[in-house]
Amino acid sequence: MKLVEPVVYVENYDGKKIMQRIERACRVCYRSEGKITEDSYKTLLTNCINRGHESVLEHEKISVRLVGDIGAYKDLTRHRFASFSVESTRYCNYGKDRFNNEIKILKPCHIDEGTELYEIWKKGIESMEKAYLEMSEKGATPDQLRMLLPHSTAAEFAMTANIREWKHIFSLRCAKMTHPSIRQLLIPLLLKFKEDMPEIFESVEYDTEFPKEKYANIIIMD
Ligand SMILES: Cc1cc2nc3c(=O)[nH]c(=O)nc-3n(C[C@H](O)[C@H](O)[C@H](O)COP(=O)(O)OP(=O)(O)OC[C@H]3O[C@@H](n4cnc5c(N)ncnc54)[C@H](O)[C@@H]3O)c2cc1C
Fold first, then answer.
1. Which of 164, 172, 181, 186 to mutate to test the pocket of ligand 1 (most atoms within 8 A of CB)?
2. From the alpha carbon of 81, which atom of ligand 1 is closest?
3. How far apart are CA 40 and CA 55, in angstroms?
């Protein structure tokens, strides 16, 4: 097995341009396009959000690619207004050479290495992998093999959502009651969105006690 760390690849968006394009669409409501200046989007967006006029945020979208675990993608794909493309355990046979004959496992952020619990978890994963590789060797199909895969299996998935949906997803999935493997991916992404688009995201709350050293790396995609 190969232990991997979580990563969030983010498209190289321009936060100011996103907000200015939302402003352009929104001003159609009031036919106030003539009031557009370099910075007029700031007040307009703040007012819209305060009044709950959030449908204007649907005019723009952002795509990311996440390396998380099966548990994270299972939960995130419940969000009906986001679009997903998920690494398929029905097509990928990790027992083949192109996967180095091993299963990638996301290092759990809430089971500490060096503890008894970690050792028990690791033993469970190793025995699962042994069975997977044995079945693969005997010609099992990915459809059969995936019956063994646990929530810790690393999964890569592309995700696109409009800005309104991102705001909604962050408000649910960066909170304390959400599973740590999702908070680990989405809190650092929310912090980036807050920095680049404060007028839209600054009011979104998150679990500030989640350990920063466990945040997924954020990498900008070309
Ligand atoms: C902490 C936590 C625990 C959870 N536990 C469970 C669990 O035990 N079992 C389980 O099955 N799920 C669970 N969920 C998933 C949860 O019930 C939602 O399915 C998931 O969070 C998607 O949220 P959503 O429906 O708000 O989002 P989206 O699908 O992103 O929708 C966005 C918003 O659009 C509106 N909307 C969308 N579709 C409709 C519709 N058909 N009718 C009316 N309004 C609509 C709603 O206002 C919704 O909030 C949990 C989620 C969280 C955050």
1. 172
2. 30
3. 19
